[in-house]
Amino acid sequence: MRRVFVLVTVAAVVGLLPGAAVAEDNKVQAVPFTFVGTAAQCAPSPAGSRIVTAAWLGGMGLPDNGGMNATTPDDPHTGLLLSKNGPTADCSSAGARITGVSGMTVDANFALGYDYRLGGHCGAGAPRFNVDTDKGFFFVGCANAPQSAAPQDPVQWSRTRSVLATCGVECFPSAIPVGAKIKSISILFDEGTDAANNDSQGVGLAVIDNIFINGKVIASGPARGDKDKDKDKDKHDNGDENDQGEED
Fold first, then answer.
1. Pairing of strands 92-98, 243-247
2. Which of the ends of the chain has fewer CB neighbours closer than 10 A, N or C?
3. Burial letters 158-179, b for 16+ CB under 10 A, else e
4. For the segment 92-101, what is each residue's pLDDT rounded down to a tens digit?
5. What is the pLDDT, as a whole number, of residue 130?
6. Helix, strand, coil % over all residues of the chain, rounded to 5
7. pLDDT classification of 222: cutoffs 50, 70, 90
8. In the chain, where do the E strands start and end?
9. For the CA atoms of the chain, what is the radius of gyration?
10. Cβ atoms of residues 191 and 179 within 8 Å
11. Where are the domains of the chain?
């Protein structure tokens, strides 16, 4: 089945952030954001709708202490909810900006991935990693990535891992060459309720956890990002640089 999705690049503009936030950018963390495009940003498509949300929420994910799910009652079980409650074509997206990665170099073992809760959406293009490098822009999708049972809950959660230098069809347009310098990494969710994959009804949301960035694991984060700053940061990416990509 031919599927069309919006390829959205998300760049982190440190100059827009206050001093305290710049200091936080030195830490590897996942900062949630949402984007709802204006008519000018989305032209020739219509403006986006307020149908997206992104947040780290207690009770949504796996135990933050690494223990087994449902056997660690005092743990907050924080998970990252990404939701798009409407059509894929709507000029809006949810996601998380990965801080602390600028300047990293892709080597033969550099890998990205996360654990995702079964029953949510794992499509070819969402949730995906957008990876901007000095060798070009790439994305790493979910559905075609190598999958295994997530150790904390192997029945209800799956794990993805993609080695960037050797990844297969989950990486578009290709694997990322060794030696590439990372400019930014983000996670994007922009496939809506009309895009069914493992979720046969096209549920339009995903819950992810244990975000894996080259050996570092992000198990929790700030509840929500700054929508206004994210709007400024992403407006040219979700508007002028909307490319249409296709996956089988």
1. unpaired
2. N
3. bbbebbbbebeebbbeebbeee
4. 999 999 999 9
5. 98
6. 10, 35, 55
7. confident
8. 3-7, 30-36, 52-57, 79-84, 92-98, 111-117, 128-133, 136-140, 147-149, 157-163, 171-172, 182-189, 205-213, 216-218, 243-247
9. 17
10. no
11. 3-247
Q: Measure the CA–CA gap between 33 and 56, rounded to whole angstroms.
A: 11
Using a 10 angstrom Cβ sphere, with 0-12 exposed, 13-18 middle and 19 or more buried, the burial of residue 244 is: exposed
Q: Half-sphere exposure of residue 52, counting CA atoms within 13 Å on the CB side?
A: 28
CA pair distance 37, 126, nearest whole angstrom: 18
Sheet holding 171-172, edge to edge: 30-36, 92-98, 182-189, 128-133, 136-140, 171-172
- Select from 97, 83, 61, 103 the least CA-distant residue to 192: 83
pTM: 0.83
Give the three-class secondary structure for 138.
strand
Sign of the Cα torsion 112, 116, 118, 124 reads negative
Read off the tokens for 80.
């990252």
Q: Is the dihedral of CA 169, 33, 30, 87 positive or negative?
A: negative
Tokens of 148: 């295994």
Of the pLDDT bands very low, low, confident and very high (cuts 50, 70, 90), residue 90 is very high
Residue 25, pLDDT score: 67
Task: Find where tokens 């949402």 sit.
Answer: 34
Q: Specify the length of the chain in residues.
A: 248
Q: How many CB atoms lie under 10 A from the CB of residue 108?
A: 9
